[in-house]
Amino acid sequence: MSNLEEKYLERLSEEYPTISAASTEIINLQAILNLPKGTEHFLTDIHGEYEAFLHVLKNGSGSVKRKIDEVFGNTLSRKDKKALATLIYYPKEKLKEIGKIEENMADWYKITLYRLVEISKHVAEKYTRSKVRKALPQDFAYIIEELITEKAELADKELYYNEIVNTIIRLDRAEPFIIALSELIQRLTVDHLHIIGDIFDRGPGPHIIMDRLLKYHSVDIQWGNHDVLWMGAAAGQKACIANVIRNCARYANLDVLEDGYGINLLPLATFANQAYHDDPCECFKLRGDTDYNELEVETDVRIHKAISIIQFKLEGQMILQNPEFKMESRLLLDKIDYAKGTIMLEGREYALLDTYFPTIDPQNPYALTPEEEDIMDRLEKAFLGCEKLQEHARFLLTKGSLYKVYNSNLLYHGCIPLNEDGSFKEVTLFGKKLSGKSLYEKLDSYIRKGFFALNKKDRENGKNIMWYIWQSPDSPLFGKDKMTTFERYFIKEKETHKETKNAYYRLIENEEVVDSIFREFGLNENESHIINGHVPVKKGEKPVKCNGKVLIIDGGFSKAYQKETGIAGYTLIYNSYGLILVAHCPFESAEKAILDESDIHSESMTVSRTVSRKCVGDTDIGREIKENIKDLEKLLEAYRCGELSERV
Q1: What is the tens place of the pLDDT at every residue in 285-307?
Q2: CA distance readout (Å), 35 to 29, 221, 372, 413, 645
Q3: Residues 6+ apart with CB under 8 A from 42
Q4: Local structure of 448: helix, strand or coil
Q5: For the packed helices 266-275 and 294-321, what is the interaxial angle rounded to 10 degrees?
Q6: Between 218 and 59, whose confidence is greater?
Q7: Sheet (strand 348-351) strand order
Q8: CB of 165 within 8 A of CB of 113?
Q9: How many CB atoms neighbour CB 178 within 10 A?
Q10: In this predicted structure, what is the pLDDT of residue 613?
Q11: Helix, strand, coil share of the chain (percent; to 5)
Q12: What residues are paired with 410 via a beta bridge?
């Protein structure tokens, strides 16, 4: 035995001090390997649509309904199943409604408790008793464990369980108990959640989504381009801050910043109203529905224009200061003829739809005015000093990454930058040539440097990389040749708005290309899937590509995309039987779901089905457990051959 191995086994012996303790743990771990694998739930491109997100989270993309069907089959009517499902999703709210109409609450409590206990038993059966115990709500842990655990030694189990339920009702604890059971069912129905990017922007509640994820029992996040933009803003990167504010203004969601995060926008609003007081800001009208009054709309569109001009200036500074980004083609403010009101792009002159630029110096167009400098300094301090935003950024850093390999599936938000021949596109960044996996890993490390590096230059580079990821043609999270934000605001001609996607999106049906991506990330091309979002799957398109090897699950959670997609998002379930893709219809509201017992209408299709049910032993966790078993067997052998003494 080597010194290193001996030291490791000595440490292990502190936790398992005897032959009996080590043997018991081996038996326990070996048993866990043969349990069914837990259900994984995949969501992407949520874009602030918190009500739909929370509902899909509660119903597990239809998993709760499937559990109800499995338990009760044809013994419950469709109406009763809907009512039971709604109760599980919204127990507190539904109990209030039932209390208004139910004449005999004691009978209703008894029937409902029995039904919830049966479902709880069913969802708990694939886990160890220890794992279930950890998931139990503290107030009712002992009672729930008694109810959902078979007691073979009892001669009259029915009498025993009846007495528990009757006592719960008699002591007026039925409603909190129903809430506890409902939340337990939600908790055990899904073992692990994957968020494959774009929590932020467009919708009204990204902060609400983040608060919910902070409390979720098991989650990982693959950052999307919008997430990285907000992370850059949280790190104090000014071009990212300007983009975040512009996106919020564009979709009439400035209250996300003001109310959700407590960011003071009054200095910006005051400046915008002064600088653009006589400007109708026609090119900066708001998108989406809003309940703003006329004055609020006027202020918002002025903020929208003011921050857009600041953004274009800051981005120009970024490009000039970072020639290694190779984005000189996006320097546009110096291409404007301010006297004529035109711009020269690729050898052609275009008339501008808006020619009022009171804050731009034609001789130095990328310089901020003193007022703009002051506003951005204040905003930088506000973003850096926002405790809630910093908490959310830390959570994204802790639980997130640019890509993840999990149970033989490759998860990422955007694309692997490719050349037209399917080879990996080579990108030079800070003097290093990168492609494929190495590009992802280097960008990931720079994001973390933007928050944690002690070296000032490394930290600044990390912050700037977050803006680069947002809109560079070489960014795997953007995946287009350019971001034509300026052109869409100021130029009528549609040809200037075109953004050409990376070759990845044209080659994703090519099995040789997809297999090369699997090999790049160390995966078996015959057993793995790519799961990603970013580009909405439009009407008539299929989310399942390349003979089932690639699943694009952005189906339009964001209301802004639903006219193009025709649905309200795809989600994915990976349980012990295989992969199930779920297409969702638009979600009206939580209130309607509670009152009308209307779930999101969803269509499910099986993408792949396993020949035999997958067990924990077939997963990444299973591989870790097998390694632990090997180590424990070495410890056992060391005890038995006298190399180590038991710590009796």
Answers
A1: 998 777 788 888 999 999 999 99
A2: 10, 26, 60, 31, 33
A3: 194, 196, 411, 531, 553, 571, 572, 573, 574
A4: helix
A5: 100
A6: 218
A7: 336-337, 342-345, 348-351
A8: yes
A9: 23
A10: 87
A11: 55, 10, 35
A12: 405, 530
Calpha distance 415→214 (Å, rounded): 27
pLDDT of 568: 64
DSSP assignment, residue 418?
B
Q: What is the dihedral of CA 170, 176, 177, 183, to 10 degrees?
A: 170
Q: Residue 152 pLDDT more than 60? A: no
Q: What are 139's two structure tokens?
A: 């107030």
Quick check: 47 pLDDT over 60?
A: yes
Question: Could you tell me which of 284, 285, 311 has the C-alpha nearest to residue 372?
Answer: 311
Q: How many angstroms from the chain centroid is the CA of residue 88?
A: 23
Cα–Cα distance, 88 to 184 (Å, whole number): 9
pLDDT: which is higher, 214 or 145 = 214
What are the phi and psi torsion angles at 163 (to 5°)? -65, -40
Distance CA 102, CA 111 (A): 13
Q: 14-17 contacts: CB < 8 A, separation 24 or more?
A: 14/647, 16/632, 16/635, 17/646, 17/647, 17/648
Beta strands in 17-61 (DSSP E): 40-43
Which amino acid, 153?
E
Burial class (CB in 10 A: 0-12, 13-18, 19+), 183: middle
User: From residue 356, how far is each of 276, 277, 305, 352, 487 by CA, in Å?
Assistant: 9, 11, 10, 10, 16
Give the integer Cα–Cα distance in Å for 635 and 10: 8
| SS3 state at 644 | coil
634 has pLDDT over 70:
yes
Burial 240-256, CB ≥16 within 10 A → b, else e:
bbbbbbbbbbbbbbbeb
**Mean pLDDT in residue range 219-238:** 98
Taking the C-alpha atoms of residue 249 and residue 257, their distance in angstroms, rounded to an integer, is 10
Element (H, E) at 604: strand 602-609
Give the pTM: 0.92
> How far is it, in rounded angstroms, from Cα 24 to Cα 34?
16
Q: Which tens digits make up the pLDDT trace of 484-528?
A: 999 999 999 999 999 999 999 999 999 999 999 999 999 999 989
User: Quick one: pLDDT at residue 400?
Assistant: 97
Residue 565 has pLDDT above 60, yes or no: no
> What is the 3-state secondary structure of 158-183?
HHHHHHHHHHHHHCCCHHHHHHHHHH
Is 350 in a helix, a strand, or coil? strand
- Whole-number Å distance between alpha carbons of 502 and 476: 9
